[in-house]
Amino acid sequence: MYTKDGEKYFIVDAHVALWDARPENQRNIHGKQFIDCFYDYHRNLSPESEVWTYEEYLYQGGERLMKDLFTDGYVDHAIFQPAYLGEFYHSGFGQSEEASALAEAHPDKLTYNHNFDPRNGEQGLEQLHADAERFGLKGVKLYTAEWHGESRGWKLDDPWARRYFEACRELGITNIHVHKGPTIRPLDRDAFDVADIDHVASDFTDLNFIVEHCGLPRLEDFCWIATQEPNVHAGLAVAMPFIHTRPKYFGQILGELLYWVGEDRIQFSSDYAIWTPRWLVERFVDFQIPDELTEYAPVTTAQKKKILGLNAAKMYGIDVPAELRLPDADEPATGPRGADELSAV
Q: Where does this protein have coiled-coil stretches (predicted)?
């Protein structure tokens, strides 16, 4: 929990990872390219005081993760969103065994989501059933630009992907997190395009589609889809650190999301270990839309509380102390919202 000026904020970090990118786990040059790209994001968008050494960055381990999130980072609950990347790393990039064991040991603090790849066909479907039973899955993280043999990506509306979503329905896996937005070397930009969210969100209205990185740099595409699909949500991973390097740009991102998507469908994420949550939480609570961005309404304390934790807590059924809860906004399910607030400024 974070407290500032008498206000208390329940913090859910909705997108964290425990990865191993050390040289001994790199299968080929692409494993090094991938973690080097992550490190460039980390080094260039973090305050100088928050920059890790490259060696620290390759593997953080469970003990450090617990300290960075819960001892130092104000986080009340965090959700693992592991990327597999088996073509680049011997045991995968996100460490499923270590992360799931950590979540099992700290169920009050951690939720473990897993992943699937529809290109694995029937065998993958069987594995999804086994994983759902083993981990008690409520969500998955999908990486549509992941390489798989000769394939360099897949789409959410592919026939096999639809079979996996039907299985998610049966298994109670209702939260589908999808990396849509920033490309990462050597993955292909177009395989992260946000357009295929529209099709599956319309067909699977009983599943939540959380678009991680809110489609950046295709924010406009994302907003025009999300405003018409009440089951599409915005994840702020990667968007958050711009609060430091480019606050006006961050203000534009947040202003657009609040206008098109609304305060009840935006989730805070540090994207740990690309960044750590402490400074992001502090900066976000202090943040306000820059005066020159007159087309956006000011961000309220209630909106910040929802974004920092209450929205994700509601989606995952995480217990929140009664005194910290807030009612949903009285907003339309579809279409732009926020015009009334702006006219009142």
A: none
